[in-house]
Specification:
The complex is a heterodimer of chains A (522) and B (410). Chain A is an alpha/beta fold. Among the domains of chain A are: 202 residues, FAD/NAD(P)-binding domain; 105 residues, no CATH class. In chain A, 34% of the residues lie in helices and 18% in strands. Chain A is built from 15 helices and 20 strands. In chain A, strand 1, helix 1 and strand 2 form a beta-alpha-beta unit. Chain B is α+β, with helices and mostly antiparallel strands. Among the domains of chain B are: 163 residues, Probable tRNA modification gtpase trme, domain 1 (Gyrase A, domain 2, 2-Layer Sandwich); 83 residues, Elongation Factor Tu (Ef-tu), domain 3 (Beta Barrel), CATH 2.40.30. In chain B, strands 10-11-12-9-3-13 form a 6-stranded mixed sheet, sandwiched between helices. In chain B, strand 18 and strand 19 form a beta hairpin. In chain B, helix 4 packs across helix 9. Chain B is globular and about 65 Å long. Chain B starts with a helix and ends in an 18-residue tail after the last strand. At the A-B interface, helix 11 of A face helix 5 and helix 10 of B.
Chain lengths: 522, 410
Amino acid sequence: MTSFKNKIVIIGAGHNGLVCAAYLARAGKQVTVLEAAEQVGGAAITREFAPGFKVSAGAHLLFMLDKNIRKELSLDSAGLSFSQQDMSTTALAEDGNHLQIAGDALQGANISDKDRLAMQEYRRFMNRFAGVINRLNNRIPPRIGTRDRSDWIGLAKTALNIRLLGKADMREFLRIAGINIYDVLQENFENPLLKGALSMDGVLGTNLGPRSNNSVFCALHRLSGLQGTAMPKGGMGALSNALANVAGKQGALIRTSATVSRILMEGDRVSGVELQDGEQIAAGTVISSADPKTTFLGLLGARNLEAGFARKVQDIRMRGNVAKLHLALDGVPEFKGLKQDRLGDRLLIAPDMEYVERAFNQSKYGEYSVKPVAEITIPSLHDDSLAPTGKHVLSAVVQYAPYRLKAGWPESKAAFMDQLIDLLAAYAPGIQSRVLHGELLTPVDIESEFRISGGHWHHGELALDQFLMLRPVPHSAQYASPVNGLFLCGAGSHPGGGVMGCAGRNAANAVLGTKQVEDHHS
Amino acid sequence: MSQASRTDKAQSFDISTKTHYLNKVFQSPFYSRQEPMNHLKEWGRWADYLSPHAYTDSAMEYFACRNACAVFDLTPMSKYRVSGKEALPYLNRLVTRDVVKIKPGRVGYCIWCADDGQAIDDGTIFHLGEDDYRLCTQERHLDWLLTNTMGFDVRVTDETHEVAALALQGPTSCAALKRMGLSGIENMKPFDIGYFTFADTQLMISRTGFTGDLGYELWIDPQHAEVLWDRLFEAGQLHGIQPMGDVALQMLRVEAGFIQCRHEFTPAHATVRTGHTRSPFELGLGWLVDFNKPNFNGRKALLAQKQHGHRYNMVKLDIDGNKPARDSYVFTKNNKRIGTVTSATWSPSAKASIALATLETPHGEPGEEVLVEIYYQKELKWSRVMATARVVTDVFYDPPRKRLTPPADF
């Protein structure tokens, strides 16, 4: 009876689940990872969406992978390599006068010298502020209101990091961290295309418009990985495979097509999990990389929680507002005014901030954007393993597409797809005739394919009120949950979404640091 | 589930028929009978209802209850129906005690907490039938009760306005009910629920109360409220029946040692200041906390309290002299302040000045002597006395008739 108490089950082989498994296995723990899908990776996978055409089905760019994890787990020797690194961004203009952004260097779109200088300053302070967040990413969030020394040290360190920005930067950090990116960009720049493109940093993957508060915070969070934008060779799935290799080598058992249907309780602590086919796996520790709503309200059940906590979990804001478009193309698409060598950039359709805000407006009322914004990549230009010779794949993050669409997604999906292709055609005339096959993942599809409640990529909106010791909710923000033996390790926990891995690493540390809790219920 | 319950409530309670918005409060279905008897016109407010402070003379109302019988209008009490397949597990997660032990046809006292183990309210659970319960409580808690439905197959509806209720308390209460024609009432044991045919409807009676005396609570459709009042007073006339207000009830419940929300504690969800709430252990209700249940609201925090100790002890004080120690500070013999009186009265039955008080731990051991600072006025002149008081364990008034079945006839 006592042997199962040393066993650890991790629910979900997404990148965070795998990172957590790798660290725990490395520390000598007996770890089993259970993944519902047929392959590991969760939303960080490469999969075929049309015969011969493969795409990173969830996240398609890597810009936040924690460098400690990459080093500590020797991911490079486990098969991780990049088809493209330090990618530039090109902000597309309908008239073909595009703007190229490479670091703080700007080119095109009649950019003024004033904006060039402003860009240098903007990059300087945004990267500095992102550094403050970066230093939080690898830490178990401190708790508020305890007498525990480590909590106080954690809080003090955070305050010190802000203070060390110096008087002027600290004041600016505190001024802008909670406000909207529209105002900040308006203060700094004049070129509409530049402002439109930079505003995307604050709203991509979120349920925010440029004028929503927290959009500066989201931009800082995005920058906090402090890594250049890159594409893993073989798509995002290659990263997951490398993580699975490392975890496996360390002794973790990874089972795919093993859908956990329920977390089991014995008295007041977890005792294992039950799979959809009825198989029960006993474990003294269960770590879930599923989102907090799925974990607590779905797999565990609100009845096993205290009611106030259950209500807080239910109230987490996590409704997806982003869709993913995949196109199989019969050849290289041509974008108006875009040179061939820039086609492999991260391409943005966000001509100005008002455009982005208007696109967001419709989603507030349960409608998809009439003129959506998009982040487009053509990964097959860098990686010929993704499409048959001479053919290409286009992968685009498109928003806004609210999870709760008034008209209903089944009825509206085809029309939205047509609208997206029309949008692309406005910049790449004739692209329609090159489309061999298309796939659109709405938040509802994302919910069902990746098992993310609400279809929100980040497992919960990234916002100051859902960050650090407030993520996902107080009393489970240190990865341990109120239920003895149950931990979280997914993006729903600090420091949140983006393919980063920090949540998995921090959770492993939390598990390793936890003394065996005495069983009160015998 | 909670959505459905909200809708059900809206259907059963038609707000358009109510006129409370004209005077901001509901009148009880007994109002037409209470109003002419309320010579003092002393009305207070209990939640959204008018509730009499006193009808004629609180002392006389008190003595009616201890020596004959007195009627208190309970209608403003919150009454929540909890039913459905998982009503029992739902209640067991809600309250700290084990509800399995409240058998059908029985009533149980209970307390419930927020996640932090601090009391929200206390009340009674009526086990009406299979998967069917009623929770009665002083304050309104629909939001919290609906929040608790998440994950349970249960329906929670507010039936506060659909059930009229009277408490009939005192030594002659059983005899009065018998005269009213409720044969078999004498066989009901404390905390029993019984059903009687009355005026062509069903009258539910529980042998419960808030006075620490023999007594019953009568539950009926509001349409039959007036006839119940009339018949009760007609039958009770020879048994000394009197209406009773809240002032008399306060004296009675302090004698019985019963705590009351907003006196001994404030509801956790309505308390703004940190540390101003109380846990069941701090209210002397540790016996209502059952850690054998694997999960209930506040369990983790209460377990920690059990291990590491709690902040306060709720005690009963027997105070020298005859000055009621209302709102007094409590000191040690060395004049160190250790707590406050939460409820106090002169007890006519115990012939003593008595109080319920909250003392900081470790104070409050049985027999401990403390000082109570009492301010009192004699013809506009204030005086202060540091009265000696003793912590006692027995309730101040505990007549055997409270438990006797069948009760003595009068």
